[in-house]
Amino acid sequence: QVQLVESGGGLVQAGGSLRLSCKASGLLFSTDAKGWYRQAPGKQRELVASISSVGSTNYADSVKGRFTISRDNAKNMVFLQMNSLKPEDTAVYYCNLHRIRGGGLDYWGKGTLVTVSS
Fold first, then answer.
1. Three-state SS for 79?
2. Would you say 112 and 6 are in contact if contact means Cβ atoms under 8 Å apart?
3. Edge to edge, what strands does the sheet with 67-72 contain?
4. What does pLDDT average to over the chain?
5. Any residues with CB less than 8 A from the CB of 61 and at least 6 apart, and which?
6. In contact, 114 and 91? CB cutoff 8 Å
7. Which residues of 33-59 are buried (b: 16+ CB within 10 A; e: fewer)?
8. Cβ–Cβ under 8 Å, residues 28 and 76
9. Using one digit for the tens of pLDDT, what is the confidence trace for 89-112?
10. Please, what's the b/e burial string for 83-111 (b: 16 or more CB within 10 A of its CB; e: otherwise)?
11. 46-73 confidence digits (pLDDT tens)
């Protein structure tokens, strides 16, 4: 099994910054991809950013140039640096681990709330 624990959410004013962290534990593989998703009230969960095991990144158009995803493989952690935050970034942010090995399983953290005030 895999456990994912997020931290770093909170309340910030528009234009501010936050850094989310996610610690993975359990049965992990070097080929696992990681990512951040978010879900705003009344909306579907959406991909924010992802990073492959070799460091290739992908971002939603809405966060390109403002957010940066990174990972520390030695510590089994993934980070999301969020700059120039906007009120529309308000959501619960979920850490995701996508297991390519074995057919594509997804694991999720419980989420951390980010609130951006105008």
1. strand
2. yes
3. 2-7, 18-26, 77-82, 67-72
4. 96
5. none
6. yes
7. bbbbbbeeeeeeeeebbbbbeeeeeeb
8. yes
9. 999 999 999 998 877 899 999 999
10. eebeeebbbbbbbbbbbeeeeeeebebeb
11. 999 999 999 999 999 999 999 999 999 9
